Give the backbone structure.
Amino acid sequence: MTIEYEIKNQTKKEKKSIEYDTLLSLENCSLDTLEILQHFYYSDDIEQYKRNKSLRASKAEDLEKELKRFYEHITHEKIGRKKYFKLNGLYDIELLPLQKETKAGKNKLRATLEAIILYVLKNKVITDTDMTTNKWLIKLGLVSEKTIRGYTRFNSNITYDKFINTHFTETFNDPKITYFDFKVNQKYTRELSTKEKFNLLKVYYSHVDTIRNTFNNALMNLEKHNLIIHNPEIYYGKTENDLMRLELEEIKKFIEIQNELKEKLGLEKNRKYYMNAKFKTALKIRLEQGLEVKLYNGKTISNVYTSVFKQKAIINKFSKKQLNKYFEKNADVKKMYDLLTHELMQNYKGAIVDKLNQLYEREKQSKVKYFEDEKKNKLNELELMIKNKKALGKTEKLKDKIINEYKNLIQLQEIYGNLLNCKAEEITQSYNNYLKKAN
């Protein structure tokens, strides 16, 4: 699938396009500056770099912001005198590209999340230090437990039609839609197809991915500014009677097993492979055989786990002085932080609804543009057939048939958008009362 978007700064803008498969292929590779520029930056800057072999600091910073619209993690490495980029954590296709951060500040959602994290850590609202990402979101009141449960179930059962039909009714209540059918010139009520239900659920649950990604980016930024300790790679294993933290050698072995199963099941490009039902079953069977490893001290162990999962630790390390210094340079975060607690959460809810409405509108406009282009191509083909006297039937009727077919398809995008917008307001209604404890 081709992703079309625009890059712009204060002096220029340019239309860009990139294939999603290309974005996937760039992950985990060492890419030099020219390669990065060719994929993600302005044409004239590419030519300028070819001549000068260097990039001004301001442009390097702007380029980094463009990369962050696609990837969660951007790192650099030097081999000799040459600098290489490493891109990891490609966002889901429905989210691409993210809105670019500007000098005016972070986007509203990111700033609000940073304020919530800092508030909670400063006031010691949550006593746990390491949890899964989903558990952090629930504990912080960012997503309801019911929504996370639905998100996990959906991603584990996306290939099962029976589940999709049942889960859609549980989530959206009514599986029927009413619209004006231009083909027969009258109103028509029907049940959504399984494919339509799947697509709506996929777009709906992408809001959880948006929150997860923004939450992780907020943590990385706070860690970068030395305000928190953030360790996202803590592995635990469940045995029949206990919960154990994995040794480093066990983690290495476990990752090797994961990669083998991903390759075997054709899930290398699936970012949510760990929620795939077949993967989960295969991993469970493999874990039952035990993780036999030789430890650093020469001792051999073979623990049998019923499941292995990853948690992230978030620990406060900032002083009042450090926090105020951060606020001086990040006025948008301070503005959120200084709100009364209920106002802070209202701002969060507003930021989520704004983000979702943007996401749903972009999804709708993308589909509308696709069908408008398809209609134009079909009409052009028909005109060519008429010109060459190859069209069978009355030409006006043939034209009307094409026009009405695409009118229906475009009208459906509006109906799908309305269904999703109705859900947007519900997303953050269920909150923990954790902020009240600090007052």
Summary: The chain is about 55% helix and 20% strand. The two ends are 49 Å apart (CA to CA). The longest helix spans residues 341-387.
